[in-house]
Amino acid sequence: MNPDDPLLKILACPLDKGPLHLLASDEALSDEEALYNPRLHRRYPIVDGIPQLLPSSGEQVTEGEHEELLKRMVP
User: Fold this and answer.
1) Taking the CA of residue 14 as centre, how many other CA atoms within 13 Å lie in the half-sphere pointing to its CB?
2) What whole-number distance in Å separates Cα of residue 25 and Cα of residue 4?
């Protein structure tokens, strides 16, 4: 997903309806692209370019992971 994609401006977290942030893929960690809600510490995967935004597809992250994900957020 491109950081300039207009879709990113309208996507919202299915739980709190707030904005999501694009996470760049990290090849060193073999992490794929994802959308992240730093307020709830939830990560939503992007599979084949399609954001998976069902509440059940979100993954709760630990405090340590949260700090690392904040560094990967695309401005």
Assistant:
1) 12
2) 16
In DSSP terms, 48 is beta-bridged to: none
Of 40, 41, 46, 53, nearest to 12 (Cα)? 53
Q: Classify 25 as helix, strand or coil.
A: coil
Report pLDDT digits (tens) over 9-20. 999 999 999 999
Q: How confident is the model over 23-70, as pLDDT tens digits? A: 977 654 546 889 999 999 999 999 988 999 999 999 999 999 999 999
Instruction: Tell me the C-alpha distance between 71 and 66, whole Å.
Output: 9
**Pair 73, 22: CB distance under 8 Å:** yes
pTM of the model: 0.87
